[in-house]
Amino acid sequence: MFNRRSFVRKVGMLSAGLTVQGAAAGLTQQKKPMKKGPIVLSTWDAGLEANVPAWVILEKGGLALDAVEQGVRHTENSINCCVGLGANPDRDGHVTLDASIMDHQHNCGAVAFLERIKHPISVARRVMEKTPHVMLVGEGAQQFAIAEGFALEPEKLSKAAQAAYSNWLEKSQYKSPSINRENQLDHGPFAPTRLQNGEWNHDTIGMLAMDQHGNLSASCTTSGTGFKMRGRVGDSPIIGAGLFVDNQVGACVATGQGEDVIRVAGASTVVELIRQGRNPQQACEEVIQRIIQIKKERSKDIQVAFIALSSQGEVGSFAIHPGFSFAYKDAQRSELVKAESWFK
Ligand code: ASP
Q1: Domain ranges of the chain
Q2: Which pLDDT tens digit goes with each residue over 277-286?
Q3: What is the DSSP string of 117-169?
Q4: Which residues contact ligand 1 via a Cβ below 6 A?
């Protein structure tokens, strides 16, 4: 249960610069840089599978950029994961997708509110490589995708999404943010929501890779949050919030309640803290703590998590709540790592 006194004590200690939670486990405890790439890591359990095609590229000496695109494309294809066209729709019954990608030279591309296109991550890469822009949204993004040869898929919900949507429609618990914004954000249909079995329901995969040249790239692709307000866009396609790469310093990708990641410019703040001397674990913890300081008691109802990789190959991750894992792969090992969290 949320304990106000202990919450206040923890935040107080944090202000004094003390870390009271989340001693880094396993991978993240090492003080010295482990090594340079190749390394790939990605959010949630689906990351284990997504790392496989990414690793095929990295182990052959391929580019981190290709690895992070191909890795999350695998998840976009999967019918067993709630990323991509098989995911939950918005409250009007349409699946709308967001994605972003960034390389080691600050090149970046993103799409948001994209409908009926199977691989938003690849459209984001084309935005980066073939336009003078960083982000295309909605109809314009779809037109661009079609012009680039992406197929316009039929608008049809997957079986699982149809069932979840019908279930949601029974209550249609959605209050307009303008009526009750805080309540909406914290208790409304925004993901990740806690399932009855206590696990977090999420709709995103984010991936970070370092190739054999030591270059970093990041990708993120999502259906946003299930039953969201039509037109809602979260953090995932926002460069600096959902993901950020600075090749001299490190890379970070976020997952969780996008509104609260945007509030602290999550991924770029993590990278900036690494620039200032924190290791990736400390940087992730500090930004999660910042969100907790902003949200106060309401933190108990939201999940946010970061994964980060420094240019020295150090890894870090931290979440507000338990239940977040990330998948790690290098030449020696492939494993799912349970992230530490503020709440236990
Ligand atoms: N960050 C995503 C969003 O807010 C959701 C998620 O990571 O599950 O759109």
Answers
A1: 4-341
A2: 999 999 999 9
A3: -S-HHHHHHHHHHHSS-SEEEHHHHHHHHHHTT---------HHHHHHHHHHH
A4: 191-192, 202-204, 222, 224-225, 234-236, 255-258
